[in-house]
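Hi everyone, sorry if this is the wrong subforum. Our group has a chain we'd like a structural model of before ordering constructs, and none of us has done structure prediction before. Sequence below.
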Amino acid sequence: MELEYSLIKKRLQMLAIDNANGSTERERAEVEYLIGEFSASSPLRPMKACNVNFSAAASLTALIITYIIVLLQFKVGDESTSHCVCSRNETDVE
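Answer:
Right subforum, don't worry. Here is the predicted structure as tokens:
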């Protein structure tokens, strides 16, 4: 992907140089904008399956951490209540 971005950027720069005199101000601005877009860092590509930008990756990380914390709280709460139930049953039996 990085190679594709750099190739597109080079071609856009050559286009800008070749058509510098024969293009309008708007066309030059659009080419400069595109050069800037392809100069930016490319998004994350986990196992080349999809594009993920950095803010989406941060949100996903926060979501996973929150989910793990909630699961741990349920597990801790479940262990403490199951222990209490067992101790009550043992006293009731005797």
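For your construct planning: The mean pLDDT is 76. The chain has two domains: 1-42, 54-94.
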